[in-house]
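Render this sequence as a predicted structure.
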Amino acid sequence: MRIKLFLLLLVLLGTVALPSYTRGSDPEQDPSASSAMSITRAELILFAKQFLGTPYHFASSSPKNGFDCSGFVKYVFNNFKISLPHASREFDKLGTALKPKDFKVGDVVIFYGFKDKSKIGHVGIICEADGMKSKFIHSSSGKVHAVTISDLGSGMYTRRFYKCINVFNEGLTGSLADQ
């Protein structure tokens, strides 16, 4: 009996102490979905990569329904208690533009629209930092039509690049270690 109680206590403690990184958790629906006080940039990307292949769905920020680009970015950061807009155009005035040499994993990359090069139309998250040769994870409405990883240095994205920002230094809620 004592052993059973001890094992039950261990299981309960383990489920309470571990932050939630499961694909099924929805931080907007479940306030306990992320209890991590500090998270590394690598952990943020590991969480984001769980959604590779999730279908693109306009105006959605749900892994069940699919994501649009800003919905995906919002969902990932919201899981770590960092609040971001759910409209790519709202990223226009957010943050200070970084120099390519200062891009880090977890920074948000912002692009002009595909058809209208005067308005913000797409966002993603740097997942491999190497200046303008970085890779980023995003929900693409293009040929892939899903969460994917793309090269910032490709012609498609280089010509639409607007800026890259570090949202963790902008006084938004949440904390993130620089690892």
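Summary. The mean pLDDT is 81. The CA atoms of residues 152 and 158 lie 6 Å apart.
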